Amino acid sequence: MKQLVEKKNIDLVMIYRDWFRDIPESWVRVGDMHLGKMKITPARSVVGFYVTDPAVLEDTLLKLKEFTRTLPEGVDFVFARNNSG
């Protein structure tokens, strides 16, 4: 996973945490998005968000705070404890 995101220059990853055993230790979990309504296409009701490069953490947190304001009713983003939301 780490090699793929580095090759593709990916700074933010959204994954179902229980699908992956070896999430790189260098990735910073910034929070989880909880889907509040009945699932139609998603496989899970919670999606984990990770920053793959700690150098972009602060900028990504600012962007996620803006993003959370656009979420539809019933969908919540919960920031990880180590990140203020």
Summarize the structure in short.
This protein has 2 helices and 4 strands, in the order αβββαβ. The protein is α+β, with helices and mostly antiparallel strands and 85 residues long.
Rg over alpha carbons: 13 Å
- Main sheet? 4 strands, antiparallel
Shape: globular
Distance between the termini: 27 Å
Q: What is the number of helices?
A: 2
Record field, number of beta strands = 4
Mean pLDDT: 88
Q: Extract low-pLDDT stretches.
A: none
What helical percentage do the residues reach? 10-25%
Order of helices and strands: HEEEHE
What structural category do the secondary elements indicate? Answer: alpha+beta
Which tags fit this structure?
about 80 residues, alpha+beta, 4-stranded antiparallel sheet, 4 strands, about 25% strand
